[in-house]
Amino acid sequence: MRHVQIKVLVPSQEARTVFDSIIRWEKYPGLAPHVHTTTVHSTLPSDECSSSWELHFRSGLLRWTERDEFSVEDLTARFEQTDGDFDSFEGVWRLRQEGADVAVGFDADFDFGIPSLEGILDPIAERVIKESVAWAVTGLFPSAKVLGDANLSDIRPDTAAA
C-alpha cells in the first residue's frame, strides 16, 4: 500500500469557498493535464455521491469510479474506489481555516495489487496523483503554495515534467 500526502496553503480565502471549488471534480481536466476526464454521477446535495476518473498514466489511462462523501460541516471530502484499475484506492481532502488562509490537506492510500510491479508502478502513480492535486488547487487558486514537497513547490502545468 502506497501513501500519498500533499499540503497546500491557499492565502486570503475562506475555507468554505475553497472547499466548494475543490469538490468540483468536473473542472479537473482543465486544471491538471494528467486528468483526461472526470464524470460526476452525483454530488451535493445528494446523499450518495460518486464520480469516475481517467488519468493519463504511462502510455495509457488509469481508470476508476469512486464513492464520494462530502462533509460541509467538517470541510472534508472522502473517497473510495468502487470499481477500477486499483486493487484499492481511498483518501480524504481536509480543509482548515488558519487565520486569513486555508490549509488544504490531501491524503490517499492506493494499491495496484501487483507486488512484483509496485516498485515500478507506485512511484509513477504517486507522482501523477500529487501533480494532479497540486495543479488542481493552484489552478483554482493561483496564489496557492504547495508546502513541504520541493518537487512540487512551484508547480504549474506548464513547468512540470511530462
Task: Tell me what you see in this structure.
By secondary structure, this protein is of the alpha+beta class. The protein is built from three helices and eight strands, in the order E-H-H-E-E-E-E-E-E-H-E. Strands 2-3-4-5-6-7-1-8 form an eight-stranded antiparallel sheet. Strand 5 and strand 6 form a beta hairpin. The longest helix is centred in the last third of the chain and has 23 residues.
| Helix percentage | 10-25%
Radius of gyration: 15 Å
Total number of helices:
3
So what's the overall shape? Answer: globular
Strand percent estimate: 35-45%
Biggest sheet details: 8 strands, antiparallel
Average pLDDT = 92
Strands in their spatial order, largest beta sheet: 2-3-4-5-6-7-1-8
Q: What is the CA–CA distance across the termini?
A: 25 Å
- Write down how many β-strands occur, each being a DSSP E stretch of 2 or more residues: 8
Low-confidence runs of at least 5 consecutive residues: none
Structural class: alpha+beta
List the secondary-structure elements in sequence, H or E: EHHEEEEEEHE
Task: Lay out the secondary structure.
Layout: E1 2-10, H1 15-22, H2 28-31, E2 35-42, E3 49-57, E4 60-71, E5 76-84, E6 88-98, E7 101-111, H3 118-140, E8 145-147
Antiparallel strand pairs: 1-7, 1-8, 2-3, 3-4, 4-5, 5-6, 6-7
Keywords:
alpha+beta, 162 residues, 22% helix, 8-stranded antiparallel beta sheet
